[in-house]
Design a protein that fits this description.
single chain; alpha/beta; 16% strand
Amino acid sequence: MAGLGAETVHRNARLGRAALAAGLVTVFVVVGALGVYRYARGFWLYRGFPPPNDPAFVSSKGVAERIYVASAALGRSQPVDVYLPPGYSSAASSHRRYPVFYLLHGFPGRPGAFLETVRMGVVEDVLVARHRIRPVILALPFGSTGTFTDKEWVDGVRPHEGWATFVSRDLVRAVDSRFRTIPTGTARAIGGLSEGGYGAIDIALHHPREFRVVESWSGYERADPIRSIFGRDRARLAANSPLLQIGRAAPALRAARTRFWFYSGSDDRLLTQNRRFAAELQRLHLPYRFFVRRGGHNWALWRGNAAVALLAAARHLA
């Protein structure tokens, strides 16, 4: 009996050690998976850059909030991130009105990338603190039904796919009604990166009185023939290709005193389109600035040029 008892004790000890080892493995796996998740989430949010933080000398900071805009063009409510500039909520500024910069994300994309990766909020806080610009409201709409669903910011062939109308009509009206904006086209800019840059130009050509400044960061000017958006409608495809429509839109753009500001990376395959568009603007005597930055089609380029982009927009708004 004593021998059997000792054997049982040893067996139980072995089982205990095995259970402990299994538990430790489970802990390591869970901790490792959590670490991988946190790394992946951090990379998705910040693309390898540090999280956005204002420098110490910035004493007044803007505030980000999310609103939902009911859109007849989309048949539903759509989320929009809004960045209210430093001082917006202070008692001293309670009667002040602000221009608005509408920024359209790329594909795949989401509006938060402008604040988290490009860090536009920090850029504005710094420029306001240094008295380089007057404060501007940033409006960042979500232009799709999902991060990996491509809509191109155009009015598509299917019902409730009016993404351009959502921006130019429903979103503008909602922002003007909810915030202390200057509710005129002379106080609005529209811009975006990659697909959002294309969308900004395309929307501005169809709605020239809604926006004074048009910016494109590594965008393009020929619509991609995506069947789910344009179907087989070649006329719609051409109507949403700024390179083909700029001549038609030029008189209205000139009357609205619209200014174009855009750039491309030196290694970007879309550089040729942008150079052709710049040549068309020059031929039509439309105000513009186009330049090439060293780099490709990436977040480093957009983040590195965020300050000059905001300066360019703010300086030409009422």
